[in-house]
Design goal:
Elements lengths: L4 H23 L10 H14 L5 H10 L6 H6 L3 H15 L11 H4 L4 E11 L20 E10 L4 E9 L19 E4 L6 H9 L3 E5 L6 E2 L8 H6 L5 E8 L4 E9 L2 H17 L6 H6 L2 E6 L8 H10 L1 H12 L11 H26 L7 H10 L1 H7 L3 H15 L13 H6 L4 H4 L7
Helix pairs in contact: 1-2, 1-5, 1-16, 2-3, 2-13, 2-15, 5-13, 13-14, 13-16
Length: 447
């Protein structure tokens, strides 16, 4: 059921008071009674960095002082310990066990499935001092990329809920995480990028009655139901016309699927080739002629039958995956989860965990007070949440005051609604009318 302001208020109170104190005791962060309790520490760093992602220690001390927990910059710096990181991680885990959703949008396309689950990951580069805890993949220069944290997300778009968040070291492949293999309800739709592409996994989902839409790895061989396997480029070049929608078998496993492809405008294909060459140049690799030729095509594979989704509807749903990338863009660009002024390992780790906790809270506030993210600008909404961060912190002692802050935030978020656009229709417009002329002619702004 969609959450209400009256339900969110006590959940915030419980998490940042009782839950934070319990986490501090369980992890050994607090062993005796002191002014800077587990709750005040978690509140100060979470809401302090939510209010100002570039806040210095002095700014956080000011926030703590408003909670009657006076502490010096040196004293706070000394509190960033392994126990503090464990405490923040515990509270983050508690937060992720609480799923809040918004009232669903009247989008018939999404309602055809028992939930639309979107998976993605984003890597955060960390100071080299954290290489022992969170090793990265390295880089061309010494120390470059020595430490990194990979953040994986699963969002359910019908209600907007943050279903799962996983933290991995930078070297771990997306498919090695349990999140990538997360069980989904029968009749659900799974959308994920190529980092989560695995033919055995897609076959398993098909056997379980779960639908999926995915891009296709360039090296995957394809075959018609009664034909021999062949390379993707050769298969596409043998198809008549600029648009393809045919049944195929994928890879050596022969996974049954439906392949959709469309030839891109030349200017879009050239931009893709330029990006491919730039990425290859950075890693010191070359690009094959076959890979460059594949830039002429946009290719999807799915197990959703044509009678359930027309081709234009499949392309529109693939655009929905942008929503999770937009979440990461907001978390990094505005939440500062990939920025720190610290250099000590546990100071940096505590900041990362506190900012991720702040982003989870921000996601709750946007959902409950603003509604499904498809209908409003998440970037403008996030700015309004940050402006309410300290008011919400100071209201935590009284449930009625928390509700009042959330009601005021709701009014401000109503002004963030996305306006209908003709040239580049918003995602929710495409979901309402995938066949509209602007999309049928090809809206390539996100390719």
């Amino acid at each position: 059921m969609p959450a209400t302001v009256a339900q969110l208020a006590p959940a915030l109170q419980d998490l940042f008071t009782t839950g934070a104190d319990a986490a501090a005791a369980d992890t050994g962060f607090v062993r005796r009674r002191r002014k800077l309790s587990g709750a005040t520490f978690v509140q100060a760093v979470t809401f302090g960095w939510l209010d100002n992602p570039r806040a210095a220690l002095d700014d956080l001390c000011d926030v703590a002082a408003t909670l009657d927990a006076g502490v010096s910059c040196q004293g706070l710096d000394q509190r960033f310990t392994p126990q503090a990181a464990a405490c923040l991680q515990d509270v983050l885990c508690q937060a992720l066990q609480r799923t809040f959703t918004a009232a669903g949008l009247p989008l018939p396309l999404l309602s055809r499935f028992r939930g639309t689950y979107v998976f993605d990951s984003s890597t955060i580069t960390l100071p080299a001092a954290l290489a022992a805890l969170l090793p990265g993949c390295g880089g061309r220069d010494p120390g470059d990329g020595a430490a990194a944290c990979k953040v994986q997300l699963c969002l359910e778009l019908s209600g907007g809920g943050l279903e799962e968040l996983a933290l991995l070291d930078g070297r771990t492949n997306d498919l090695e995480s349990p999140l990538a293999h997360r069980p989904l309800p029968e009749g659900a739709l799974r959308l994920a990028d190529l980092g989560f592409f695995d033919l055995a996994l897609l076959r398993r989902y098909s056997d379980e009655g779960v639908y999926w839409i995915s891009r296709l790895h360039a090296g995957t061989h394809v075959a018609t139901p009664d034909g021999p396997p062949q390379k993707l480029l050769a298969f596409l070049q043998a198809q008549p016309g600029p648009a393809v929608d045919v049944p195929v078998r994928l890879g050596a496993q022969g996974v049954p699927a439906r392949l959709l492809a469309r030839r891109l405008p030349e200017e879009v294909a050239n931009r893709r080739r330029q990006r491919l060459r730039r990425r290859a140049s950075k890693s010191g690799r070359g690009v094959s002629a076959e890979r460059l030729a594949l830039c002429d095509w946009d290719v999807l594979v799915t197990n959703v039958p044509p009678e359930q989704l027309a081709a234009a509807e499949v392309w529109a749903l693939q655009r929905v995956r942008w929503q999770v990338e937009l979440v990461f863009k907001v978390w990094k660009g505005q939440g500062g989860v990939d920025w720190t002024r610290g250099r000590k390992p546990y100071r940096v780790l505590c900041e990362l965990l506190a900012k991720l906790l702040a982003m989870v809270v921000q996601h709750w506030l946007l959902l409950v007070c603003g509604g499904i993210g498809l209908r409003y600008s998440q970037q403008r909404g996030a700015r309004r949440v940050r402006r309410s961060a300290l008011a919400l912190l100071w209201a935590l002692a009284q449930a009625a005051e928390v509700v009042a802050v959330l009601q005021r935030l709701r009014q401000r978020l109503q002004r963030c609604r996305v306006q209908r656009r003709r040239k580049q229709p918003a995602t929710y417009q495409l979901l309402l009318d995938p066949q509209q002329e602007a999309f049928a002619q090809g809206d390539w702004s996100l390719t």
